[in-house]
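User: I'm curious whether this sequence folds into something compact or stays loose and floppy. Could you predict its structure so I can see for myself?
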Amino acid sequence: MSSIFTKIVNGEIPCYRVAENEKFLAFLDITPVAKGHVLVIPKQEIDYIFDIEDALLAEMIIFSKEVAIKMKKILPCKKIGVTVIGLEVPHAHIHLVPMDKLDDMNFAKPKLSFAHSEMEELANQLYST
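Assistant: Here's the prediction. I'll summarize afterward.
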């Protein structure tokens, strides 16, 4: 059975796309812990990040860095935090979270919600940067 992320890759479920190449997709998290929270996934469905072949994992980190640099230009924050949890969806993914303090990376706190128009505008800004 395909993961929700595979369905996003295949265009079966919409997303707020911020970057993409032939191997990876980055999109806004719809249940973010901070405004501008992005998920980076391999287009190939792989459950566990450490099951990703080394060369592909290196490319994924570099792709994530490129996305984080774009995020930092647009989003007011001190840094872009990076984490891999991997329990929520059985498809490897990296969280990129704008942060000013450590608590901004607290995934146990209530998730935020933003209007569709705000998410769309932010995604378009990031995609065009």
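Summary: The two ends are 35 Å apart (CA to CA). The mean pLDDT is 96.
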